[in-house]
Amino acid sequence: MRDEALWQTEDIQAKRKRDYDSKLPKDHEIQAEGMMLLYDNRHEDFPGKLHTRWMGPYRVTYIFPNGSLQLEDQQGNWLSTSVNGSRARDLAGFVSAAGAGSASW
Fold first, then answer.
1. Helical H segments across the chain, by residue range
2. Separation CA 11–CA 22 (nearest Å)
3. pLDDT at residue 4, rounded to an integer
């Protein structure tokens, strides 16, 4: 009886873990030395119509184990803090997506 309850509890926990892990964002495949744009969330509460929400481009110099990034600008100056990897987007993918939208005009 007790072993059966333990087995059932482990089974439920494994199912919850699978469900939780399936909802996590996929890896953005960020690579070191790649060019990235950084999302500017300072103006998130008051977005302007013509306000650009992306800063950069920046070069990724180091990827920390927790997914945060160390970035440097085009002059080689490092940003003073590390940046959450979910705020960065690959410049090549960003440009190609923008180009596809402008081609339909």
1. 2-23, 91-103
2. 17
3. 92
pTM: 0.57
For 46-104, the pLDDT digits (tens) are 766 777 788 878 998 988 888 888 999 889 898 888 888 888 888 776 666 555 544 43
Contact 52, 38 (CB under 8 A): no
Confidence at 13, pLDDT banded by 50, 70, 90: very high
Task: Find the Cα–Cα–Cα–Cα dihedral 72, 77, 82, 85, rounded to 10°.
Answer: -10
Q: Is domain 30-103 in CATH 2.60.120.10, yes or no?
A: no
Question: 76, 60 in Cβ contact below 8 A?
Answer: no
- How many other CB atoms are there within 10 angstroms of residue 42's CB atom? 9
Q: Considering only the C-alpha atoms of the chain, give the largest distance between any 2 of them, rounded to a whole number of Å.
A: 68
- Which residues have a Cβ under 8 Å from the Cβ of 1 and sit 6 or more positions away? none
